[in-house]
Amino acid sequence: MTGTREKEKGAAAPSSRWRGWLLEGLSEQSARHPGPHATPDEERAGHRWWRVMCLTGVDYFSTLGYQPGIAALAAGLLSPLATLVLIALTLCGALPVYRRVAHESPHGEGSIAMLERLLPWWSGKIFVLVLLGFAATDFMITITLSSADAAAHVVENPFAPHWMGSGNEWITLVLVGALGAVFLKGFREAIGIAVPLVASYLLLNLVVLGASAWEIFTHPVRIRDWTDAMTAEHSSPWAMVGVSLLVFPKLALGMSGFETGVAVMPQVKGDPTDTYEEPKGRVRDTRKLLTTAALIMSCFLLMSSLATTVLIPQADFESGGPANGRALAYLAHEHLGEAFGTVYDVSTITILWFAGASALAGLLNLVPRYLPRYGMAPEWTRAVRPLVLVFMATAVLITLWFNADVDDQSGAYATGVLVLMVSAAFASTVAVHRRGHRRATVGFGVITAVFVYTLVANVIERPDGIKIAAIFILAILVTSFGSRVRRAFELRAAEVSLDETATRFVDEAARQGPLQLIANEPREHSTRAYRAKEWDQREHTPIAGGGPVLFIEVFVRDSSDFTADITVRGDEKHGVRRLRVSGPTVPNAIAAVLLKLRDRTGQVPHAYFSWTEGNPVSHLIRFLVFGDGEVAPVTREVLRRAEPEPGRRPRVHVG
H/E element holding 106? Predict the structure, then answer.
């Protein structure tokens, strides 16, 4: 028998160690995971804005790896003109919007938090869940698309082994797996890695574009051939402008880094005089970050679009062509030799892979920021490693679905980016309108309309983004509400406190024995009504000893909230003493107050309820949605789960 127990104990030990490792960090503070978007400790000073810009840049600047090729496929010979439209929207639209977001939400919550404050009750929660679905689309496709483009650079390199020739899919899966392995182990000091990575990548791109410019200037016939081809294809300059305006939504990936830019705001070092309420230095430097990144990216986008359109035959951009998904790498090999081209490939592969790391860190920060607060996440989502496994499994499915094709994923990526930009623009419009800035309201309203047009055009052209986002939204809604139902019977009170009057009532009543409380509807009653209620309870649920009673009344503030601090306020009116409470639900608030009173008096209190008329199923639904329903049995269940020892559990009487 002893040997059998030892074997069972030995078999359980690895399982216990595995569970402990997997759920390490399972706490309310687990959103402070190590990574690019982690919330720094209060004692940490943060980083200079240009260093944090490099962290944003691994996502933003890495799009140079595939953006020129996507632009060439979308706009053809008009790619530089369409890119000019995109740059105008970036500098005159996205940049002002996110500078406003940085001002309104300086602690990394982003535009989602701004919109959350606009909508009350359940509508606000559901809206946030939908936006989280689009944000998940943005970040997840960042991981898979960046890895797929990195795989394309590996396969197309002339020094790559021949057996890698058709290995885009499995190479992408290896990169995704490596990314997950890094986060399972722990991801630290991301900024220290991002700075040299971004600096070297931009420098190599500058060399490639400089060599391309030299090639164009020494062979001006290339410019003439390009302009002649545009003239032959389009009847007039106005026609070219019109086509560019129509196709530029397909180039929306060039604006993909702004949401990351505001998400990393907690990493920006502010002024010594900054406070949590007014971090003016952090806001100022984050705006510098956003502006500098937008200007750098705009210059590189325009130069790369011109170089690739003029120097690369259009046929080479097509699927399977040597420039597909790697236009600048094509120029690096073509004009600077295979050795330099290989160095450029390594740099591009690294930054694309690291862009996936930034996106994954964003997801690991975003999900714990909202869902646990809503009670809409299982307990294990507070730990990093289980979430990493879920996201990596999702990335594998997306990679297999799109066959690791960059072009096929670009529509889904752009949809996620544009939905977040529309939400940011709309939130900024509302914010300036509330402050009475009429001109700014009109300006942000126009920007919102342009982003809406861009989004609609992209969705019509490439509906894959909506399909992917719908899957994420459905998954988030189902798991969130399932978790909310499962956790509905938790205590859900962060802290319970009594005001001076309530404390006096409780202490005086406790001197005559265990507290006896009558649960009552939270509205003003007459003296007769209170006396009738007390007489009814004494008749149907005999109150021990006929001692004094306190009435407890709970006002539901916002039933969509999950937890809240509870303050018990006492008053004496209509000849009775009342304890009045405000909380998200009635039974959970009563249970929390009963436990607080037990701990204060050292005696188990008794609570008296009346049965509620009606269908029990409808009452359960009312409890889940409106926070009331059949109060007595739910209060009993909440107490049972909160206090496992029956002898210490407050008593619930129903008559």
Answer: none
